[in-house]
Design brief:
This protein has helices spanning 2-33, 203-219, 222-227, 230-239, and strands spanning 53-60, 64-71, 74-81, 86-92, 95-96, 98-104, 110-120, 123-128, 132-133, 137-141, 145-148, 156-161, 166-171, 176-181, 190-195, 199-200. It is α+β, with helices and mostly antiparallel strands and 244 residues long. The strands form three sheets. Strands 1, 2, 3, 4, 5, 6, 7, 8 and 9 form a nine-stranded mixed beta sheet that branches. Strands 15-14-13-10-16 form a five-stranded antiparallel beta sheet. A two-stranded antiparallel sheet has the order 11-12. Strand 4 (86-92) and strand 5 (95-96) form a beta hairpin. It is elongated and about 155 Å long. The termini are far apart. 20% of the residues are buried.
Length: 244
């Protein structure tokens, strides 16, 4: 009887211990299950702002091989430019598209300059920033004279202009016009001044002055002039106002 009671007590104890372990296991499982999920941080994607490409009016102040193209990382001369040529300066967010680059010459020498991108009759080129002005229009010099560093008669310089010379100009004062001149150290030109009565922006006057200047240059060359009949030569010299 005692053995039976002892065995029953042992079985009951075993059941109690097993029941306690099962409860502990459920508690641990519930505790693990109840842990909140961690939030995954989302890194925002920053989009770069779209650059606005446009153009702005420009006018060449340099005559020569002023338009370049880029080949193998070097700028090479591509087209001739004349003072007064209209171009479109390519802009990015309103600012001219510029870059420092090396220009390679026909003789193999190289120099570095700052270039600006331009559109010329639908074709893209690069030109030095010192070769182009961002303001002004074509004008022609009516008589030989000196330029001024400021719109003041007391500021006359040693710089001269000749009759028939094309320049880029804009109004400065009632008595003076500004001339945008080419300067190696002045991006987009250097302003000098001239008396307004010495310059014209009239298209007909510009064309006629250019023609007269060319005729004069031709007529005053010894060999070509000698080949002209006297009457033609005299008419040309009279037209250009020469006393020869």
């Amino acid at each position: 009887m005692k053995k039976t009671t002892a065995a029953a007590a042992a079985l009951l104890l075993a059941l109690l211990v097993a029941g306690c372990k099962e409860k502990e296991s459920k508690v641990v499982q519930e505790t693990v299950t109840a842990e909140p999920e961690r939030e995954v941080e989302t890194v925002p994607v920053i989009e770069e702002p779209t650059k606005v490409i446009g153009t702005a009016d420009g006018i060449m102040i340099y005559g020569g091989w002023g338009f370049c193209t880029e080949k193998e990382g070097k700028m090479v001369a591509a087209e001739w430019s004349s003072v007064g040529d209209s171009v479109q300066i390519v802009t990015e967010d309103g600012a001219p598209v510029e870059k420092m680059a090396t220009q390679k010459y026909a003789n193999g020498t190289e120099e570095s300059f700052t270039f600006v991108k331009v559109d010329v009759d639908g074709k893209n080129y690069w030109t030095r920033t010192t070769f182009v002005s961002r303001t002004g229009r074509t004008g022609v010099i009516l008589e030989d004279g000196y330029l001024f560093s400021a719109p003041d008669m007391a500021t006359m310089t040693q710089s001269k202009v000749k009759t028939g010379q094309l320049v880029v100009t804009y109004d400065a004062t009632d008595d003076f016009a500004a001339i945008v001149t080419y300067s190696k150290s002045s991006p987009y030109g250097k302003d000098l001044y001239i008396l307004k009565n010495m310059i014209s922006i009239d298209d007909f006057t510009i064309d006629s002055m250019i023609t007269q200047a060319r005729l004069k240059e031709y007529a005053e060359k010894t060999n070509p002039a000698e080949q002209l009949k006297d009457v033609v030569r005299n008419e040309i010299l009279e037209l250009v106002g020469s006393e020869r």
